[in-house]
């Protein structure tokens, strides 16, 4: 009898009360961040104080999930067991705010199709323990070339 589970496809995030909205928003298809109710600034990664106006009056908001590829690289190294290279590691900047960026993977297209400035939208991959990983795919990319 095998006691060992399959090796995980992804590293499991450390979900805390501070970032739970981010990791669990995908269960409802929402990319969620903290936002400042005083000045409207979006905050990522999560922080207790707005970096723009120092207000502590923050709330969780769902972003559009749309953005552009800010920069990217193609990883050829097998850093993560079970996650086979090559794959695209990208920084996506969301349309809500300049500088609202997250590191992610681009999926749903060929490696050669990924370009800086490419319009992308969020999709989610379910992890363990109710966490969802935000990934991005080309806008309107349904697998058709
Ligand atoms: Zn603020």
Textual characterization of the structure:
A five-stranded antiparallel β-sheet has the order 6-5-4-7-8. Residues 1-8 have low confidence and may be disordered. It is mainly beta and 145 residues long. The longest helix has 5 residues, at 20-24. The protein has one domain. Helix content is 3%, strand content 37%. The structure holds zinc ion. Zinc ion binds at residues 36, 38-39, 41, 50, 52-53, 55.
Overall number of strands: 8
Which small molecules are bound? zinc ion
N→C terminal distance: 45 Å
Q: Please state the overall shape, judged from the principal axes of the Cα atoms.
A: globular
Which features does this protein show?
145 residues; mainly beta; five-stranded antiparallel beta sheet; three-stranded antiparallel beta sheet; 1 helix; disordered N terminus; binds zinc ion
């Amino acid at each position: 009898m095998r006691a060992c589970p399959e090796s995980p496809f992804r590293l499991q995030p450390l979900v805390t009360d501070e970032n739970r909205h981010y990791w669990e928003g995908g269960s409802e298809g929402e990319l969620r961040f903290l936002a400042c109710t005083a000045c409207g600034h979006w905050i990522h990664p999560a922080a207790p104080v707005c970096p723009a106006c120092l207000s502590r009056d923050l709330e969780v908001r769902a972003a559009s999930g749309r953005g552009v590829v800010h920069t990217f690289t193609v990883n050829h190294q097998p850093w993560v067991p079970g996650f086979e290279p090559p794959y695209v590691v990208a920084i996506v900047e969301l349309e809500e705010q300049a500088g609202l960026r997250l590191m992610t993977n681009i999926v749903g297209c060929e490696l050669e199709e990924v370009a800086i400035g490419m319009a992308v939208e969020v999709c989610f991959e379910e992890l363990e323990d109710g966490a969802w990983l935000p990934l991005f795919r080309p806008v309107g990319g349904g697998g058709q070339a």
